[in-house]
Amino acid sequence: MEFIKLFSTEHIMYILFFTIFYSFLLYIRKFINSRFFEISVASTMGIIKILGYIGRYYINHEPLYALFPIHICNVSFFMAVIFMIKPNIKAFQIIFYMSLGALAAILFPESVVVFPNPFGILFFLEHFFILFMIIYQMVYLNFRPTKKGIFHTFIGLNILAVVAYNFNKIFNTNYMYINHKPLTPTPLDLFGPWPIYILVVEVLFIFLGFLFYLLFRKRK
Fold first, then answer.
1. Is 41 part of a structural domain of the chain?
2. Total-model pTM
3. On the CB side of 108, how many CA atoms lie within 13 Å of its CA?
């Protein structure tokens, strides 16, 4: 099984395609009733995600314990689906800062099968949706990140990390890459051995969170 190489032509084409696709969705919203648009897009993405899980179980024969939505991007995806239908500024804060994980996954995908494998397509479709939801609510609802959101998200992610760590110990999984680094090369390799790379990622999250806050905060 062949995986996408970082910043290969295929990787860049995926990024360009879904950037254009979601930009088009963002544009056509101007001509569609907002509630209809939000419910339709979010519901469709939720159904696609569930079908993806079914496919992974029946086609890829992945065990159930490997399909739990404990990864940061899965948690933020389902939050994006729910809170696109029912917008909430507090939930937006958490999804906004958790979307840093989706951005990292898009730029540095791990073990994503080359085109035309449907699960590779779903990977980019779902991760881009998280970013789309954030941009959508910034453009059409005027939601903006806050400094408090950084620390609320930081606390939430650390609680999730404790859950993931214990789940991983029981089922020999590696949700959130909290028990060890991915087996394939990733930027985490630059951050030292376990558990040093976890501490580096936490510091990096606060730094990038504050940077993105400065970039997208509400202007007076």
1. yes
2. 0.94
3. 10
